[in-house]
Amino acid sequence: MSDDDGRSDDRRSREPEDRRDAALRRVRRFVATYVEKGKYELYPEPAVVENVVQGLADNLVTHGRRYCPCAPVEESMAKGSEMVCPCKPHHADIARQGYCDCALFASSEFVAAERAKLRPHGPSDAHEDIEPASSAAPTDAGRTSSRSAIE
Fold it and tell me: The CATH number of the domain where 37 resides is what?
């Protein structure tokens, strides 16, 4: 039942959205901190990174943990914390193929190689337009750092 002015119904209808927004902020903060303090960079395609971030946030809201969205959540839950981002297999994945199976984290070498493939097509990163200008962190070469895609 609502208050005379309808505010309590409005609050209830916003609650799931507020929880998801809070989860997205938490996931973005986690990812930014992990990249900043760790040895990996973000996968070089911002749209892919954003998709993974959205999946992590969905799992956080629905299941209470950042289960990797690249695996069925039921299997991840059965494995306990092994498949909570950053998952235990991500180091081996990155060593083997240059990026984790979710395509969230990648080695510096992989990111550099992917950027080198894009250079013949133009002077700037092909994905700069996907990142909000306010979050783009220029690097020493004047290009956008892959670390800023989720901030």
Answer: 3.90.460.10
